[in-house]
Design goal:
The chain is mainly β. It is built from 2 helices and 27 strands. The protein has a single domain, classed as Methylamine Dehydrogenase, Chain H (7 Propeller). A hairpin with a 5-residue loop joins strand 16 and strand 17. The longest helix has 13 residues.
């Protein structure tokens, strides 16, 4: 047990760098609803801010100060608000996306990490990494409705397209808690059998959940019908963020640990659950957060102090832009 704890500490930045700890605590793919313009919201863990990016030009159009160590972000389905978790402030900052101004801050549990919003936009589910719980926020009042106990160090959060279930990844417990939204209780616990699972994304048809395991260099594929692990896909080192294309054919996985100084994103073909290709996103980069544009043509990857844009047609990097320090979480507003 002591050896395992040491391995987790190494994984979360004691020997890998503090920046990776902040980054690893911050990847969520938000909803992509209809609105006037596509924007990407990027959390800057080291700068206490969120960068707002115009996807059409890949330029930063606004910077919004939030709480301490912001790590994850999700956008409401109607595109009107962005919810940002602040691990250092134990809070969630709510941003009005029309003005890119802070509307309010909601206190949650200790170590606010992953966040996801229900398809109807009425609830935000926030993983509290240090509290072993999930806070459920009523988005109409921005108050905490209830708190759901889960496993040890909950991190990644994703919600099924029908809004019925929330999948919460527990890093230390090596498990996924499945919360029924009707009752806000845990109805299943999936033991993934991999070391340090961190993030999760669900396919558009709701049939599969992809869970990255940073300590096992792999992705567990869960059948959501029976909550069993179907298979494990070997990817690059220290996989963190994961996002799935709108057509459900590919999963893009950020490999947060360098390979010979280079940062990579692994592309998994979901039909066969095999690696299609890997994308080099730059020297000494730390790929962490991943989000796909609503039209599926681009993938945004946070890499420490910048983001890289991958064209899905060629799986090559077409743009790099500097943002704040410790860029980690990223979500799309449409």
């Amino acid at each position: 047990m002591r050896r395992e704890r040491k391995a987790i500490m190494r994984l979360f930045g004691v020997t890998v760098t503090r920046l990776w700890l902040l980054s690893l605590l911050g990847v969520v793919l938000g909803s992509t609803p209809a609105s006037a313009q596509v924007r990407a919201y990027v959390t800057n863990s080291g700068s206490g801010s969120v960068s707002v990016i115009d996807v059409a030009t890949s330029t930063v159009v606004a910077t919004v100060p939030v709480g301490r160590a912001p790590v994850a972000v999700a956008v409401t389905p109607d595109g009107t608000h962005a919810y940002v978790t602040n691990a250092g402030s134990n809070s969630v900052t709510v941003i009005n996306t029309a003005t890119n101004k802070v509307l309010t801050n909601v206190l949650v549990g200790a170590g606010a990490a992953g966040v996801a919003i229900t398809p109807d936009g009425t609830r935000a589910y926030v993983a509290n990494a240090a509290s072993r719980s999930v806070s459920v926020i009523d988005t109409s009042t921005n108050t905490v409705l209830t708190t759901v106990p889960v496993g040890n160090m909950p991190k990644g959060v994703a919600i099924t397209p029908d809004g019925a279930h929330v999948y919460v990844v527990n890093v230390v417990s090596k498990s996924v808690s499945v919360i029924a939204t009707a009752s806000n209780t845990v109805m299943a616990t999936i033991h993934v059998g991999l070391f340090a699972p961190v993030e999760v994304a669900i396919t558009p048809d709701g049939t599969r959940a992809y869970v990255t395991a940073a300590g096992s260099n792999s992705v567990a594929v869960i059948d959501t019908a029976n909550n069993k692990v179907l298979t494990n896909v070997t990817v690059g080192r220290g996989p963190a963020g994961v996002a799935i294309t709108p057509d459900g054919t590919r999963a893009y996985v950020a490999d947060a640990a360098h390979r010979d100084g280079e940062g990579f994103v692994t592309v998994v073909q979901t039909a066969t659950n095999t690696v299609l290709t890997t994308v080099d996103v730059g020297f000494l980069t730390t790929p962490v957060g991943v989000a796909v544009t609503p039209d599926g043509t681009k993938v945004y990857v946070t890499t420490g102090s910048e983001f890289a844009v991958i064209a899905t047609a060629t799986n090559t990097v077409v743009v790099r832009t500097t943002v704040g320090r410790g860029a980690s979480g990223v979500a799309m507003k449409h």
